[in-house]
Write a structure and sequence with these properties.
By secondary structure, the chain is α+β, with helices and mostly antiparallel strands. Helix content is about 35%, strand content about 25%. It has a single domain, classed as GAF domain (Beta-Lactamase), CATH 3.30.450. Bound molecules: methionine sulfoxide.
Length: about 160
């Protein structure tokens, strides 16, 4: 059994350090990318407060396809360049969106979502997936969250290597 309960008072830097360690423990020794994404989505949803959606989209050609997640059913295919996820994949950069209503082209899968953080996962310098976090609170995510999830994406790269084949 995996039991992981963060201390609510932890500073964000420490919270993300623990999250990355826990994710590495979860994926250690397993190459199946679906299993690894599923467990990390569950970890994110359990560990980070104020989220209504946490999960993955994976790259398939010139679009993103829905991967494992926790939250309401979501749009399945997102072309590169569309929405927050498509922007992260097309530009290979983190997208930190304080208010999704102010983001041109935001794709509303869950109307409860008010802010969003999307971080690409790289394998051999190519984007193979994005981590998508949605919150019902405006300005839920800041630079520390972005850096924390970028550290997670870096740590997950070997566990998602088979997505590039
Ligand atoms: N809002 C995202 C779509 C995915 S859902 O949030 C799960 C976007 O604009 O790309």
């Amino acid at each position: 059994m995996f039991d992981f309960r963060p201390d609510a008072d932890l500073p964000k830097s420490e919270l993300y350090r623990e999250l990355v360690n826990a994710a590495q423990a979860l994926v250690s020794g397993e190459r199946d990318p679906v299993a690894n994404m599923a467990n990390v989505a569950a970890l994110l949803a359990e560990y980070l407060p104020e989220l209504n959606w946490a999960g993955f989209y994976r790259v398939a050609g010139e679009e993103l396809v829905l991967g494992p997640f926790i939250g309401r059913p979501a749009c399945i295919r997102i072309p590169f360049g569309q929405g927050v996820c498509g922007a992260a994949a097309a530009d290979a950069t983190t997208q930190l969106v304080p208010d999704v209503h102010a983001f041109p082209g935001h794709i509303a899968c869950d109307t409860a979502s008010r802010s969003e953080l999307v971080v690409p996962v790289f394998v051999d310098e190519k984007v193979v997936a994005v981590i998508d976090l949605d919150s019902p609170r405006v300005e839920r995510f800041d630079r520390e969250d972005a850096e924390g999830v970028e550290a997670l994406a870096l740590a997950l790269s070997p566990a998602l290597a088979d997505l590039s084949s």
